[in-house]
Predict the 3D structure of the following.
Amino acid sequence: MTEIKACLFDLDGVLVDTAKYHYIAWKELADGLGFPFTEQDNERLKGVSRAASLNILLEIGGLNFDEAEKEKLAEKKNKRYVEYISAMDSSEILPGALDFLKECRTHEIKVALGSASKNAMMILDNTGLTPYFDAIIDGTHTSAAKPDPEVFLLGAEALKTAPEHCVVFEDAEAGIEAATRAGMVSVGIGSPETLGAATIVVNSLQQINVARLRESFVSA
Ligand code: B16
Ligand code: MG
């Protein structure tokens, strides 16, 4: 990479911690179906689409449903999830996220969202993050889920920026793979054990600033 022109952010686990609400809503569904669902199980759902998450949940419970029943179950879970995220505010923005988004603006680095969530707009609006984005690509715009690179390629296209000038911020393994397949460098947010495929890994956006990014990615 010669120059960083755009940053593409995953939402859940990078900018806000909605994983806890996904977990409570999925757990309520599992409780209703009569099987246990642990926080460890929930790790398997991070970054995965709603329909694929339900399939994993039902596999854990050893249950089978037809497509129409699965749609109803996914709707039921989403209704609960939306109740939780309706009450979110700016206090739920993860440490370092707002400062870094502001720094991107100062340095004229373009910013896009690249999330699997169909509820991304509500979360961005409730937390006050919407004005920091030049483009928003979420689960309502994509046909293929991560690790397919579609969400990030659409983001780069919306920002009119070539993939080699884009940096992806992701907390899920599937998201890092999507970034690599899109031809983009990536910052893994979380543990190097799970995100070892990322170009660099940090604990949170608190450890990131534009100068560090340039040092890490821009070759002379
Ligand atoms: P929804 P991200 C993902 O968001 C979540 O990590 C994942 O757990 C969730 O199943 C998926 O969004 C779909 O969310 O049910 O709201 O459409 O990490 O890609 O920002
Ligand atoms: Mg995520």
